[in-house]
Amino acid sequence: MATFHFDLVSPEKLAFSGEVDQVDVPGIEGDFGVLAGHAPVVAVIRPGILTIITGTTRQKVIVLGGLAEVSESGLTVLADVATSVEELDRAAFSSQIEEMEEKLKNGEPGHELDREIERLDHFKSIQTQLNSTAMH
Amino acid sequence: MASLKDMRVRIASTKATQKITKAMQMVAASKLRRAQSAAEAARPYAEKMDAVISNIASAAAGSPGGSPLLVGTGKNQVHLLLVCTGERGLSGAFNSAIVRLARERAYALMNQGKDVKFFCVGRKGYEQLRRTFEKQIIGNVELRSVRQLGFVNAEDIAKKVLALFAAGEFDVCTLFYSRFQSVISQVPTAQQVIPLEIPAPATAAAAKTSYEYEPEEDEILSGLLPRNLAVQIFRALLENNASFYGAQMTAMDNATRNAGEMIRKQTLIYNRTRQAMITKELIEIISGAEAV
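ok -> structure tokens follow
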């Protein structure tokens, strides 16, 4: 199977760089898989779980928003925050969710609040996915 | 003339100073390594960001109603100088070099009849600029309590700057920081961040790539441009941090060497004086014995 080059960068570090078979990216308008030879695309990503598939290994990375760019040279994901599932501090993550909920209670209705609620929903769906994989 | 005891005290205190500067040099060296790797780790992101933005911006160029972050406010009257300096001194000319560059730019702009405002990041720059431009400083951020520079710090600053921009406080924003070239060379740099200067695409082929956009270009761009400001500030802060430790290491190395030189000179004078006294005492004893 053809491979392509994939870079996952966050402002603080280069989180992943190498040849991969497939990457599933959580796009803001829906998840999409990228294989070798994908058409050039620039997509905004939502907070979610990004899956890197190389051969038979699957690596899951949590990305909290950012941008994905597919070009001839491969896929580049500019993530605001990138943490691998193993490294994630679950307690800190759930307390972050609680904090966001707390903030939303006093929010002024409007466009800003809608965006925050949407973001919170993404966070919660990450959490459910994490917990469900933990049970398997 | 100072007594022998005074001299001993002075030598001891110089030695103590030397120990401190030596320790500071070693601390700076180890922190420099970390700061340098942090600055290097942030580079790929910033470079990719530049590439993506210039791609999208060149595709979106020409369309009316572009974001003011990209095309400017149409005016060039009020300039904001965003000056990033260190929180601490004892680092040679590090802070003053950045401030000097900003000050020169400010005078040049004022001579052209422009209005200049300042936004300071870091205590040292604020203290130096306050003396001459007290009334023009519209913002000040201190990172004194920050142990590990994170992206959130840069985001906070970017938010404040963007709020000022949205309120129409300025038309052009220039970022001042010290670029880390090597341990012995840090270059004070000015970089215009609002409106963003798009470097021409490196190759014609790169410019031709037609992307699909999800969602629309303008929507991506409007989210990306404020983010890019934060990235640029973050990069400046990291470069600054590495430069600071580089400068401090060099300064402390010099200080240690100077202290060594001073100790050598003081010890020489001390020994001479001591021998002179011994000789004097001997002469007194001998001439006393001869007199008997």
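Chain A has a mean pLDDT of 83.
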